[in-house]
Amino acid sequence: MSLYTEIAFKVFSRLADELAVLFPTLPDDIKKGGMKTSAREYLSNGLMAAFIFFLIEMPVVSFILGFVFQGAFTSLITAVSISIVLSAFVFYIFTQYPKTLVSERSKRIDSILPFASLYLSTIAGTKLPLDQVFKFFGKNGSYGEVTDQIQMMNKDMEVFGLDIHTALQRAVDRAPSAKLKDMFWGLLSTSVSGGDIGIYLREKSRSQMNEYRLSIDEFSRKLALYIEIYLTAIILGSIFFVILTSLFSGISGVGNTILLQVSTIFIFLPLFSVIFMLLVRMTSPVEE
After folding, report:
1. Domain boundary among 58, 75, 102
2. Residue where one domain finishes, among candidates 181, 209, 237
3. CA–CA separation, 229 and 267 (whole Å)
């Protein structure tokens, strides 16, 4: 535990316990996000961060509002109110961060799961026991987050002595991806009922690969639309804007359009390009 966490825990742990009821999913989000902390410690850190932000922000806002309002009391009350609202927003963003981690991990898992399940089905086709299938996959599979999840399952069996079914149940609880959770549940029910693991994984990998192909096709259609909008609205729009402002400036004799044109070319155009790239990255089914 770092010094910051120790101080935050000593000062804000009781308040964190009272606020924990407002965030019932936070413990699961922290576990699925792979964060090595408890919900109580995490909330304490968030409260500490919001408090530090409040102490830094309030003098700055008070100084700025001192030029807006005539009375010192009015500017102080307004600054305190604004600082409290912004600090609460910082704390809220802090509590939502584990959900962002879970979403990112889920996307990485979903992008590689069809290939990982195909490899798993190949191993299971050798008629190895299910626990041996996972151990072989954990040692030889290079499938990112999927390999990490299965390695944690192997650790539960090897270090803590759990049987394969209990380890699968624990893996279901901490899996950040709904598709991976569904595959683990299917493996668990197939194993308990005495079904053929190889056949289940083969059919599951085939289904996941079909879904992956459909997502790639859908993304290609969206990408064509995004590129058309980008070229038409942003690139051509910027060119026409520069041309039109130059013409109007020449006709009217007003020569103050240079700053606006430079801002469009060197600020707004790169900004919209970055936003476009982020949009493409967010909608892409493939995780780098």
Report:
1. 102
2. 209
3. 19
Residue listed under structure tokens 């308990």: 192
State which residues form the domain around 131: 108-209
CB 253 within 8 A of CB 199: no
What are the residues whose beta carbons fall under 8 Å from the beta carbon of 4, sequence distance 6 or more? 45, 48
Whole-number Å distance between alpha carbons of 121 and 155 = 21
Q: Give the helix/strand (H/E) hosting 224.
A: helix 197-229
* Eight-class DSSP state of 33: T
The per-residue pLDDT for range 135-160, each reduced to its tens digit, is 999 988 789 899 999 999 999 999 99
- Give how far the C-alpha of residue 190 lies from the chain's centroid of Cα atoms, to the nearest Å: 32
Distance CA 1, CA 10 (A): 12
Residues 251 and 218 in one domain: yes
**Dist. CA 85–CA 223, nearest whole Å:** 39
C-alpha 186 chain-centroid distance: 26
Q: Which two tokens stand for residue 175?
A: 């899996």
Per-residue CA distances from 88 to 5, 20, 51, 235 (Å): 19, 15, 9, 40
Label residue 121 by pLDDT band (50, 70, 90): very high
pTM above 0.85, yes or no: no
Domain count, the chain: 3
Let me know whether 271 and 225 are in one domain: yes
What single DSSP character describes residue 288? -
Cβ neighbourhood burial of 99 (10 Å; 0-12, 13-18, 19+): middle
- Distance from the Cα of residue 150 to its chain's centroid: 21
Residue with tokens 């010192």: 72
Residues 63 and 45: beta-carbon distance below 8 Å: no
